[in-house]
Amino acid sequence: MKSRVVLLFIVLSFVALALFVVDLATGAVPIPLGDVWAALAGGDAAPATAKIVRDIRLVKAVVAVAAGMALSVSGLQMQTLFRNPLAGPYVLGISSGASLGVALFILGAPLFGAAAGGGGPMASLGMAGAAWVGSASILLVIAAVSRRIRDIMVILILGMMFSSGVGAVVQILQYLSREEALKSFVIWTMGSLGDVTAGQLALLLPAVALGLGLSVAAVKPLNLLLLGEQYARTMGLDVRRARLLLFLSTILLAGTVTAFCGPIGFVGLAVPHVARMLFRDADHRVLMPASALVGAVVLLACDIVSKQLTLPVNTITALLGIPVVVWVVVRNKSIA
Amino acid sequence: MIRIEHLTLGYGGRILLDGVSAAIPAGTLTALLGRNGTGKSTLLRALAGLDGRRGGRVLLDGRDLDRIAPPQLAATVAFVTTERVRIANLRCRDVVALGRAPYTNWIGRMQAEDAAVVARTLAAVGMDGYAGRTMDTMSDGECQRVMIARALAQQTPIILLDEPTSFLDLPNRYELCTLLRRLARDEGKCILFSTHELDIALSLCDSVALIDPPRLHHLPTEEMVRSGHIERLFGSAAVGFDPVSGTIKIEKQFDKL
Fold first, then answer.
1. Which residue from B minimizes the CA distance to A83?
2. Does B236 map to a domain?
3. Cβ within 8 Å, pair A237-B81
4. Residue B55 and residue B124 in one domain
5. Are strands B158-162 and B190-194 parallel, antiparallel or unpaired?
6. Would an 8 Å CB–CB cutoff place B90 in contact with chain A?
7. Which of B70, B75, B107 sits opposite A238 (nearest CB)?
8. For chain B, is the Cβ count within 10 Å smaller at the N or the C terminus?
9. Residue A17 to residue A11: CA distance in whole angstroms
10. Does B107 share its domain with B66?
11. Are B173 and B10 in contact (CB under 8 A)?
12. According to DSSP H, which parts of chain A are helical?
């Protein structure tokens, strides 16, 4: 590997580490970096401080790292699979599937007389479960249909139409539901890294780790897919298997993150472009770890900003992500 | 070698080839000729295992195409399509390295031997000076040659190329076809390429396969020139084929227009 690439990885790792610590220090109550370190290392910090750092902020920062990596890697995969710079983790309807699940859970249940979304750990886990089931079932439907379809562009269009249709159903549910239920649904759509409990982290981390493992297994197929599915097939790639591998890893990565944190926009779309610009390489053996690392850095930074402004993280990722995408698209006309 | 038996091909609702048989031996360079829309690309894609057939069998080096697993198929036949690959950040060297995919491990790790093959094939197409250039900075002809180097790096006994000369200027066309002929003769490869260049096909190729829907004529070049198929298929009111010189002539009355 070239020294430039190695240097970039080292620098980015340090940036990620620094932002991780700053993220622990930032919040409603600012905590000095020294106290953060003491709380983490088990030194003499005030019990309240130690509790905030270890039980609340540490979980949130770990979620930010995992979500940043998961969304960026799945975005990179979708961009290569569809050979489309505007593809992202949500291109196949993961977020609309998740919002359908959550909408049915929060908005639909009261319609049928059941009480849900009232708060409490069971409700939030149920919400995540509903989101996960929603996104996974949408993606499985698309994966099943795509087995019969040769042209990847047709699958892209199907995915987009499918999400629009699901979006319409979600709107119907919103229209029919009560105010309180509607508000908790809208807040879910704004995304949040802070609602994940330590217990849920025990579900989120293994799922993301498994998804990343599948992504690593897809590195060679992804490199072959750079030349398009047709060329990839002539070089020995089983395209159906590769698609299935990529769909499964996207369910695990983007599906899980969306289930627990809500739809977080633009990270998965913009970060792979930033990684390509920094590393100037198209090889997924470099781009995949690069996207993961940049994704962690970006989401940690967004989390810090969102905590300081007390705004939903989704608004920050969109406001930071859109200029990046515009800049990349205007600057290099051909992207891949 | 490529052997096709009672092959039937179609595109949409049309039958392009109906029950044709032919054998193209190793060590020969064969041009695939035919008018627009007669199924040259469809035939090449069928031979590469990309598209299905309506009937018949394809035998590659004696093995039935349908029974060859994808990785083995990639080590048997390489294909250069007409698709343009213009990807930013993707270096020529990396494109050619992808041709080693059938031989590398799960993550595509290149061994010293693979790197040597990549360097050799890039040199063979005259692109060794471009190894570090990215695909978006090169001309169509240069991209085409890199894609051919990638096919060579697959080290297959059979190479199929769909209109490889279409983006090249005259000297480059002859150079490329001379290179293909050298590969066929020296390395015993079976090379089949589609083209619209009658003069190149007739002057450099060992044999010519001519699509005359729904039939396929496959003859040694000399015999093809004498057979009368070419003037029948390519002749029109405006142009005629002169079998003596092997060239196309514009008919007099159109010359004056």
1. B87
2. no
3. no
4. no
5. parallel
6. yes
7. B70
8. C
9. 10
10. no
11. no
12. 3-25, 33-41, 47-51, 58-82, 94-103, 109-111, 120-146, 152-176, 179-189, 198-217, 219-225, 229-234, 239-250, 256-261, 267-279, 284-309, 313-331
Q: How many Å apart are CA B151 and CA B160, to the nearest integer?
A: 9
- Give a yes or no: residue B4 inside a domain: yes
Number of domains present in the structure of chain A? 1
Grouping H, G, I as helix, E, B as strand and the rest as coil, residue A146 is: helix
Q: In a 10 Å sphere around its CB, with 0-12 CB exposed, 13-18 middle and 19+ buried, how is residue A216 labelled?
A: middle
Q: What is the pLDDT of residues A244-296, one digit of tens each?
A: 999 999 999 999 999 999 989 899 999 999 999 899 999 999 999 999 999 99
* Structural domain contains residue B247: no
Number of C-beta neighbours around residue A29 at 10 A: 10
B80, B98, B114, best to mutate vs chain A, most A CBs in 10 Å: B98
**Nearest-CA distance from A336 to chain B in Å?**
6
* Judgement on whether residues B167 and B68 belong to the same structural domain of the protein: yes
Joined together, the tokens standing for residue B176 give 């490329």
Residues A139/A247, Cβ–Cβ less than 8 Å: yes
User: Residue A224: which residues within 8 A CB-CB, separation 6 or more?
Assistant: A231, A232, A235, A237, A242, B98, B101
In a domain, residue A149? The reply is yes
Q: Count the domains in chain B.
A: 2
Sheet arrangement for strand B190-194: B77-80, B158-162, B190-194, B29-33, B207-212, B215-220
Residue A106 included in any domain:
yes
Clarify whether residues B60 and B1 are in a common domain: yes
Residue with tokens 């890893």: A249
Choose the final residue of a domain: B155, B170, B187: B155
The answer to whether residue A336 sits within a structural domain is no
Considering CB atoms only, which of A217, A227, A236 is closest to B85?
A227
Would A219 be classed as within a structural domain?
Answer: yes
Q: How many CB atoms lie within 10 A of CB B154?
A: 26
The shortest CB-CB distance from A224 to any of B48, B49, B98 is to B98
- Which range marks the domain in which residue B7 is found? 1-76+158-221
Same-domain pairing of B1 and B50? yes
pLDDT digits (tens, 9 = 90+) for A48-93: 888 888 888 999 999 999 999 999 999 999 999 998 888 888 888 8
User: Both B43 and B89 in a single domain?
Assistant: no
Read off the CATH number of the domain in which B9 is found: 3.40.50.300
CATH code, A217 = 1.10.3470.10
pTM listed for this prediction = 0.92
- Do B67 and B174 fall within a single domain? yes
Instruction: Report d(CA B7, CA A332) in Å as an integer.
Output: 46
A268's tokens:
């998965």
The domain of A274 spans 3-331
In a domain, B251, yes or no: no
What is the ipTM score, two decimals?
0.92
Which chain A residue's Cα is nearest to B80? A231
Distance from CA of B102 to the nearest CA of A (A): 6
Residues B74, A223: C-beta atoms closer than 8 Å? no
Higher pLDDT, A2 or B92: B92
